[in-house]
Amino acid sequence: MFKKILIVAFVFALFSSINAGPLQAAEGAAHPASQEWTTDGLFGFFDRKQLKRGWQVYSEICASCHSVRLVYYRHLEEIGFSPDEVKKIAAEAEVAAGPNEDGETHNDGELIVRPGKPFDKIVSPYPNDLAARAANAGALPPDLSLMTKARKNGANYLHALLTGYKEAPADFKLTEDMNYNPYFPGSQIAMGEPLSDDGVEYADGTKATVDQMSKDITAFLVWAAEPELEERKRMGVKVMLFLIIFTAMLYAVKRQVWAKLH
Predict the structure, then answer these.
(1) Beta pairing partners, 95
(2) CB distance 210 to 165 below 8 Å
(3) Which of 145, 151, 217, 225 is an S-S bond match for 70, by CB 3.0 to 4.6 Å?
(4) What is the third-level CATH fold of 28-71+121-227?
(5) CA distance 47 to 215
């Protein structure tokens, strides 16, 4: 019996030590401060002006390294762009076309491209993961389509990460070619600080501070990850109203039935 207890204790200690590394790494990251988002709460909604600014930050800064492979150009109409504006945005990208209009391909292996169209996915910055790693010293820039869903408290985490770059403390051993960011697990991240004041010139005249740009791109990525959020919240309100009315009706029927019994 004593041997069984020792064996169980040993196995428990072994698994605890195996799992401690990731747990400690996750706990080592600073907790992001809560921000106010228009999507919060039962009546949350998307601010279209903010989403358009977020798209501008993505297209002018983030798109050079990160993809949003689940978003199509036509989806940009949902954040306030007109069909003509979407066509213009899509046409500025080059999309792999395959066979040309005559059904022929280049014999020299050259990639055939055409201007993008609204039905195309937003073009990724790299043709494949190998090319992405080669351009980023071995690191693979993550796709941003579901980034705010990939982390607990995703919107606040992303905002904190984008605004959290700073000099490493004197007693912190920073690996070469890494950057200190207390909000990233392990506190060091391969991606350099992507945002700087006036990094973009907003079309609506909003001042482009790091904080503003980080909020705008975060809002855009919340939409990219959950474009049906507004509809879901509207449906939730309808369901709640139905349940309230239904409960009131049941209560009224119950009172009427019991009144007759008495």
Answers:
(1) 114
(2) no
(3) 145
(4) Cytochrome Bc1 Complex; Chain D, domain 2 (1.10.760)
(5) 12
